[in-house]
Amino acid sequence: MNVGDKAPEVLGLNEKGEEILLSQYRGKKVVLYFYPKDNTSGCTAEACSLRDQYADLKEAGVEVIGVSVDSAASHQKFIAKHELPFTLIADTEKTLVEAMGVWGEKSMYGRKYMGTFRTTFIINEEGVIEHIFLPKQIKTKTHADQIRDYLKG
User: Fold this and answer.
1) Which residue would you say has higher pLDDT here, 42 or 107?
2) Which domains does the chain have, with CATH numbers?
3) Which residues contact residue 7 at a Cβ distance below 8 angstroms, ignoring those fewer than 6 apart?
4) Three-state SS annotation for 23-60
5) How far is residue 88's CA from residue 47's CA, in Å, rounded to a whole number?
6) Tens-place pLDDT, residues 63-85
7) Contacts of 126 (CB under 8 A, 6+ apart)
8) Beta bridge partners of 116
9) Tens-place pLDDT, residues 12-54
10) Catalytic residue IDs
């Protein structure tokens, strides 16, 4: 997916097993952020950064939705442990990560494996991608600040 593309309508099932549709957020900007794994250091730092800025983002008409390939049960524990106020999509079938182009071969300590590339899409009020934070641009501990700075222009 690229800037200017229409984001998928069906985002997937959240931590409660509810289907989340992009049209539920029409009229709001959506921060759709993809992360590799619940309860890992970088992913926790990123989620907590967004948690800490969530009230300000919400007040500005922005909704935050996280996505990983973890299960709904894993997401429920992650949300409870870190008091996350936003929904998390359990993309266990990898439908959304593949559609958005954030699933692929990664390498760690010389080992190759398939995984999610940490990526954030800012989707406008009409469901069109207006900005993308690529993996090398994201600073997990201050990602919410990066998003806020972008939104302020």
Assistant:
1) 42
2) 10-152 (3.40.30.10)
3) 1, 22, 30, 32, 100, 121, 123, 127, 128, 129
4) HHHCCCEEEEEECCCCCCHHHHHHHHHHHHHHHHHHHC
5) 10
6) 999 999 999 999 999 999 999 99
7) 26
8) 103
9) 999 999 999 999 999 999 999 999 999 999 999 999 999 999 9
10) 43
Residues 94-112 have a mean pLDDT of: 93
CB 91 within 8 A of CB 75: no
Q: Where do we find the tokens 């900005």?
A: 131
* Per-residue model confidence (pLDDT) at position 153: 81
Averaged over 108-115, what is the pLDDT? 91
CA distance 141 to 25: 26
The alpha-helical segments, DSSP class H, found in the chain are 41-59, 72-82, 95-99, 143-152
Q: Could you tell me how many residues make up the chain?
A: 153
* Long-range Cβ contact pairs of 135-141 (< 8 A, separation 24 or more): 138/46, 140/42, 140/43, 140/45, 140/46, 140/49, 141/45, 141/46, 141/49
